[in-house]
Structure formats: structure tokens, C-alpha cells
Design a protein that fits this description.
Blueprint: H1 3-30, E1 34-37, E2 44-46, H2 47-63, E3 68-71, E4 83-91, H3 93-98, E5 104-111, E6 120-128, E7 133-138, E8 142-145, E9 148-149, E10 162-164, H4 171-185, E11 190-192, H5 197-205, E12 211-214, H6 219-231, E13 235-237, E14 249-252, H7 254-270
Parallel strand pairs: 3-4, 10-11, 10-12
Antiparallel strand pairs: 1-2, 4-5, 5-6, 6-7, 7-8, 8-9, 12-14, 13-14
């Protein structure tokens, strides 16, 4: 795909992302109702999650009917164009439920299907409806917050690293992740846990964080945000040169990622997480 074609796809993602974000914000103002739980009692889905995804899916089908779709709250579909839209209607649902202004609509389009190890991300948009911030990236075209081009922090030493992470919905896994946290906390500047993978990735791209690492992410959690990081000059990947996956994701400047990845790999292994 050309940069112009990628930008055309980004225009679609941005427009629909803004519309979906406005819908999510309206529903939040009206009051949030939990529709169901998923992997555990604390893994919730709201009625707004479902409504927003339905809206996004329909809007995309209107303009890109030949494309595939993978969203968090509905059954995926395979298209005929070779492109797939990867959507998280509300990333950070617990924040959304509690009224914490750190949640996002995340929309990406990739060449290929639902596997991050095989797809080629072309464009992505992450909208925070609570703040109005819009992060965008098109392959080969750079990453932006509004009109401001983004660049990851570089030449950051390990001891000066502001590292963000997240935790599993499984209590047992969270306890093991706490062991990892204890092992890294004394080696970095500090830790942040904000509750939205998509926004954490965009904050790495914007220089608000130096690095972000997490286990257990789904494709829709990181599809758009990972492209924003890469187009801001950062590296996103898994352990041992693998692509990002549910097993592990690390986003940072290249030199910091090279230093941080083996440390985290050893800590995850010691905690029984790999």
C-alpha cells in the first residue's frame, strides 16, 4: 500500500473513531450499566462497549464492505480485500465504569488477519473521548497527537525509565505479575498503571512514558497503539525477537528495549509467567 492509500484508510479510522468516541462519552454521561462479565468477575463489559462496537462495525461496512473485521465484543469476519479492521470499542472499560478519564476507542486496519505476528499494520487511530486527544499513525507517514508529530524518548537509561504496565483479570496471574513488579521497581525511575493499553502505547509515542510492557494483551488492545509507537520511532515486540502477542509486549526506544527486554524476560520466567 502507498502512503496516500494508508492516509485514506487513516481518514476513515479517524472519522469513525471520533464518532464512536462521542457515542461512548454520551453513554458515560448518561450512566454506565454492566452487561456481562467475561474471563472473571472483574472483567466486565458494558452495554456501551457493545453499542460502540456495533456502531463502528456498521460504519466501516458502509465504506469498506470488502474488508474483514475483528472486534473485542463481536464475532470476527474475513473479508475479500485482504484488509482487516481491528477494533477495541472501549479500551479501559474498568476506568470507563468508574468515571476515570483514561479510556479509548482504538481502530486499526491491517493487511492480513487477526494474528499480530502475521499482519502488516497500515493505519491506526486512538481517541480518548474524555480528554479529546486523538493519536494517529499511517505506515510511512509518522505518528501524531492532533497536528503535533510524535517521537519516543531516546537515550533513556534504565534507572531513569518511567515504565508502564498492566495486570491480568486473573487474581492468580496478578500475584505473579506482582513478583515481576517487585523485581523491576528498584531498577527504574518508577512504575505507572493507567488502565488502557492503547493509551499507554500512545503515551510512549508521545514521550509521556519511556516504556510499556504487559502480558496477556489481545490484538485489539494494541493494534493501533503499536503502530503509533513504531511511527514515532519506537520498537514494539515480544521476547527473543518475536512479534508482540498475548505472551508479551514491550514498547520503547530501540536502545532501551534492548536493555529492558532480557531483564523482564528473566523476571517473567522466575514468576512462572513464560
Amino acid at each position: 500500500m502507498t502512503i496516500a492509500a494508508n492516509n485514506d484508510l487513516l481518514d476513515i479510522a479517524r472519522r469513525i473513531g471520533l464518532e464512536a468516541g462521542a457515542l461512548a462519552a454520551r453513554r458515560r454521561a448518561e450512566g454506565v450499566e454492566v452487561a456481562a462479565t467475561k474471563s472473571s468477575i472483574v472483567d466486565v463489559v458494558t452495554l456501551a462497549d457493545r453499542e460502540v462496537e456495533t456502531y463502528i462495525r456498521g460504519a466501516l461496512a458502509d465504506v469498506r464492505p470488502e474488508d474483514g473485521f475483528l472486534g473485542e465484543e463481536s464475532t470476527g469476519s474475513t473479508g475479500r480485500s485482504g484488509l482487516t479492521w481491528i477494533v477495541d470499542p472501549i479500551d479501559g472499560t474498568v476506568n470507563y465504569l468508574y468515571g476515570i478519564p483514561q479510556y479509548a476507542v482504538s481502530i486499526a486496519v491491517v493487511e492480513g488477519g487477526a494474528d499480530p505476528q502475521e499482519w502488516n499494520a497500515l493505519a491506526g487511530c486512538v481517541v480518548n473521548p474524555a480528554t479529546g486527544e486523538v493519536f494517529t499513525a499511517a505506515q510511512g507517514g509518522g505518528a501524531y497527537l492532533g497536528a503535533q508529530q510524535l517521537q519516543v524518548n531516546s537515550d533513556v537509561s534504565l534507572e531513569q525509565t518511567l515504565l508502564s504496565t498492566g495486570f491480568s483479570y486473573s487474581a492468580e496471574t496478578r500475584m505473579r505479575q506482582g513478583q515481576v513488579l517487585a523485581g523491576i521497581l528498584g531498577r527504574v525511575r518508577d512504575i505507572r498503571r493507567a488502565g488502557s493499553a492503547a493509551l499507554d502505547l500512545c503515551w510512549v509515542a508521545a514521550g509521556r512514558l519511556d516504556a510499556y510492557a504487559e502480558r496477556g494483551l489481545n490484538p485489539w488492545d494494541h493494534a493501533a497503539g503499536a503502530l503509533v509507537v513504531r511511527e514515532a520511532g519506537g520498537r514494539v515486540g515480544g521476547f527473543d525477537g518475536d512479534a508482540e502477542s498475548a505472551r508479551f509486549l514491550l514498547a520503547a526506544d530501540e536502545s532501551l528495549a534492548v536493555e529492558l527486554e532480557p531483564i523482564l524476560r528473566d523476571l517473567y520466567a522466575s514468576a512462572g509467567l513464560i
